[in-house]
Structures are given as structure tokens and as C-alpha cells.
Design a protein that fits this description.
The chain has 114 residues and is an all-alpha fold. It contains six helices and no strands.
């Protein structure tokens, strides 16, 4: 299951960098859960050709993430927003501490986006 989630995230962030043909086949394999043979028959290519194309697509998507780190950055920003949400829900926090927490999170997100 984790591999499917990872493939989906990579595709969500970097799928537009693939060719139309690559995107269609990748979507059929990952999102539509078609077998290699079903995809091969649909696109009139060999099963090995589908396998190779999927491997190249995955390698490309992983390479994009290793260079751009967009998924990692998004995860870090999401963590900061969760901290902000937790502070907002903390009924025991005083106003000064809440302001400090907000400023800290805003700074961390700003740094992440720089």
C-alpha cells in the first residue's frame, strides 16, 4: 500500500513532466490498476515495453523529487500547520504563548518557501 501512495504522490507533483503517452500508461497502471498485459493490449505494445516504460517513468519521478524536494517540503509545511492547529486548540495556552507559536510557525513556513 505504501508504494501505491508514494507513486500517487510522485505523480501528483511531477506527472505533468511526463509525456502524454507516459502519463496515460502510468495512470492506467497506478490509478486504474490495469495489469501489464491489459495496458500492452490497449496501447498495442509488448508487456515488456509497458514494464520498461513504467520503470522509466518511476525513475524520472523519483529523480525529480530528489532534485526538487517538493514532496518533502510540503510534508514539512504540513507539519508546521499541524503545530499551528494544535496551538489554536490548546485551551491552556496563554495569548502571548499563542502569538509566539504563530510567529514561530510562520517563520518556519516562510523559511521553507524561501
Amino acid at each position: 500500500m505504501e508504494k501505491i501512495v508514494e507513486q500517487g504522490l510522485l505523480y501528483d507533483f511531477y506527472g505533468e513532466l511526463l509525456t502524454d503517452h507516459q502519463r496515460k500508461i502510468y495512470e492506467d497502471a497506478v490509478y486504474n490498476d490495469l495489469s501489464l498485459m491489459e495496458i500492452a493490449n490497449e496501447y498495442d505494445i509488448s508487456k515488456q515495453g509497458v514494464h520498461d516504460l513504467l520503470r522509466r517513468c518511476t525513475n524520472s519521478l523519483v529523480t525529480y523529487e530528489s532534485k526538487l524536494h517538493m514532496i518533502e517540503r510540503t510534508d514539512r509545511i504540513r507539519e508546521q500547520l499541524l503545530k499551528l492547529s494544535e496551538a489554536a486548540d490548546d485551551k491552556d495556552i496563554d495569548l502571548d504563548s499563542l502569538k509566539e507559536k504563530i510567529n514561530s510557525v510562520v517563520f518556519a513556513i516562510t523559511e521553507e518557501l524561501s
